[in-house]
Amino acid sequence: MEEIIRIHQLSKHYAGSERYALKDLSLSIKKNEIFGLLGPNGAGKTTLISTLCGMIKPTSGELRFNGLSYRQNRRKIQQQIGIVPQEYALYPTLTAVENLYYFGSLYGLPSSELKRRISDGLHRVGLTDFAKKPIKTFSGGMQRRVNLLAGILHRPSVLFLDEPTVGVDVHSKEVIMALLHELNAQGTTIIYSSHHLNEAQHFCTKIAIIDAGKIVVEGEPQQLIASVNGATTLENVFIHLTGSQLRDYA
Ligand SMILES: Nc1ncnc2c1ncn2[C@@H]1O[C@H](COP(=O)(O)OP(=O)(O)OP(=O)(O)O)[C@@H](O)[C@H]1O
Predict the structure, then answer these.
(1) Which residue, 16, 24, 122, 212, is most buried by CB atoms nearer than 10 A?
(2) Where are the strands (E) in the chain, listed by range?
């Protein structure tokens, strides 16, 4: 499979911090993978995703997207990226359509095409009847579905997801996961970060476990499970490799 993201010896040190958030991290992500970035609290997952989205600059190291260097092509790369953050990016007083129209227009989509995509998207996630209601009246599951649509209206080639199903009921979760599988089948590479190890085990085609800013292990979920004596789940592998010590940093 063709490579879409190459990370070479990436390090990030935040000003004033006692330790590196990422240290000499190297990774290759292939087109069309569903790549899970897992790790304990403070491992460096958000820092890595924010760097790959071009939102923060690394202290050192090399990053490439489709062969392009981030240094010279940041904007071009950002147009091909979709981000679905854990915190809702939505404006509570605006309706679902108004929110989606705002996010879609940031990517310069023509109005008629954007309206069509919004209408199709809301239909796809079962929210047509709520299109003109303010987001503040939506349940957590409804907001997560709109949050996901906001990140995919411009049809990104790589989609970053941070805990896409946290706080949602099983029905909303099924709709979200089905839509993500559909996007992946249409060619979207997915980079997924979560603490839901069971979800990751079934959803991801490849997984990297990060701890203290470094890759501890990477591979297909079943390969990783088979590599640890007595492990039957990804959670067993995770605990075996990262230990059971609490990660409390301030
Ligand atoms: N803006 C910042 N300034 C200083 N230190 C930061 C900043 N953001 C993150 N860090 C530190 O960098 C390290 C990695 O944090 P990061 O948020 O990337 O981890 P994470 O794996 O996403 O954690 P979590 O699972 O808790 O979201 C932590 O030690 C954190 O305290």
Answers:
(1) 122
(2) 3-12, 22-30, 34-38, 60-65, 68-69, 81-84, 158-162, 189-193, 206-211, 214-219
